[in-house]
UniProtKB/TrEMBL annotation:
GO molecular function: ribose-5-phosphate isomerase activity
Active site, UniProt feature: E110 (proton acceptor)
Record function comment: Catalyzes the reversible conversion of ribose-5-phosphate to ribulose 5-phosphate.
Family: Belongs to the ribose 5-phosphate isomerase family.
InterPro entries: NagB/RpiA_transferase-like, Ribose-5P_isomerase, Ribose5P_isomerase_typA_subgr, Ribose5P_isomerase_type_A
Pathway(s) per entry: Carbohydrate degradation; pentose phosphate pathway; D-ribose 5-phosphate from D-ribulose 5-phosphate (non-oxidative stage): step 1/1
PANTHER family associated with the record: RIBOSE-5-PHOSPHATE ISOMERASE 3, CHLOROPLASTIC-RELATED
SUPFAM superfamilies tied to this protein: D-ribose-5-phosphate isomerase (RpiA), lid domain, NagB/RpiA/CoA transferase-like
UniProt name for this protein: Ribose-5-phosphate isomerase A
Primary enzyme class: isomerase
Organism listed in the record: Paracoccus broussonetiae
Tree of life domain: Bacteria
Amino acid sequence: MTDPATIDLSKDAAARAAVQLVENGMKLGLGTGSTAKVFVDRLAERVHAEGMDLRCASTSKATADQARELGLVVMELDDLGWLDLTIDGADEVDPDLNLIKGGGAAHLREKIVATASDRMVVVADQGKVVDCLGKFKLPVEVIPFGWQSTRTHIERVLEELGMAERPAILRERDGKPVLTDESNLILDLALEQIHDARALARGLSSIAGVVEHGLFLNICSLAIIGCPDGSVVEL
Ligand code: 5RP
């Protein structure tokens, strides 16, 4: 287990490198989570130091609040239209740059923003890099109406893919269901290894009560992996 201070240094290294990808005049997507938060801090420093003119769309209320407090311009995605670049964190990154996201329950907006951008770049520490996706429980956002029926459908899809008896766990905090920014629920799928991510993504997307799953396939074009010594590795 890597200690938290080492992970913080790694996140900072990744964030500093990602800030260098930002150009004056860009329309930028801002991610959610602790690494994205460090990125927003570093971004605001550069914007103020260089007097940059940026307009940002946020993937969550939390990031929008942070960015506005730091003096960044945050607008609705629909008012900005297409974005030049989105920088976000990830829960897992595989060698093909496929991701699991949604640890912060924001993957729906994160996917909308990332896929409305010319380019999505992930910032992460080395602990997020995996050979095969699935160790991190896969978040699936579901509509509250009939969510238990939706869970049954999800479990059937898993069974069809040979992932039988994998529980879909309702995400809770302080004994209450976690609600997303869209007031939906999150089911976390304990899968261990996802051998056919495309088939799983198709199966989950075919279920009526599923709003969005946390598999980001062919969306990310670069992952900047920070190291505690301040260096980065690009995938
Ligand atoms: C939120 C996300 C985050 O990007 C992901 O959970 C990584 O977060 P962190 O940088 O805190 O590890 O997908 O929905």
